[in-house]
Amino acid sequence: MTEQKNIIEKAIEIGDFTTLVSAAKKLGLTNKFSKEGPYTIFAPIEKAFEPIPDSVIDEAFDDQGYLMDIVNYHIIEGKYFTYDLKDIQIITALNGKTLDISNNEKLLINGIEIKKKDIECSNGIIHAIEEILIP
């Protein structure tokens, strides 16, 4: 049996979280999300960044405090599969702000549907979303 990949390795392997992984690298978080945990990540796929002009993304990457706030708003401590989240209405992200969870036939985080769920990693779970969570 092969060993499970950590959150960073799995995100890179999937290949649809390039901007999120780049943000983690820019902030020096790759070691943390490779070795620590467990964490649950609501990871925006590349499609989420398409409507945003490159200049805006570049500005966000240049403002480390803002970028850290955004990245940490997509992460919660603990390993939460979708079946765990279905019974929770509010959960706190790593930046200290709350995320609203609703389950009306589809599981939504702040009104954004989880498109690919329960991607298990050695130190957590990735749920793919098609929009960026804004604190």
Automatic annotation (TrEMBL):
Q: Which SMART domains match?
A: FAS1
The record ties this protein, via PANTHER family, to: PERIOSTIN-RELATED
InterPro entries to which the protein is assigned, alphabetical: Adhesion/Biosynth-related, FAS1_dom_sf, FAS1_domain
FAS1 domain residues:
4-133
Question: What is this protein identified as?
Answer: Fasciclin domain protein
Q: Which organism is it from?
A: Methanococcoides burtonii (strain DSM 6242 / NBRC 107633 / OCM 468 / ACE-M)
Report the SUPFAM superfamilies cross-referenced here.
Answer: FAS1 domain
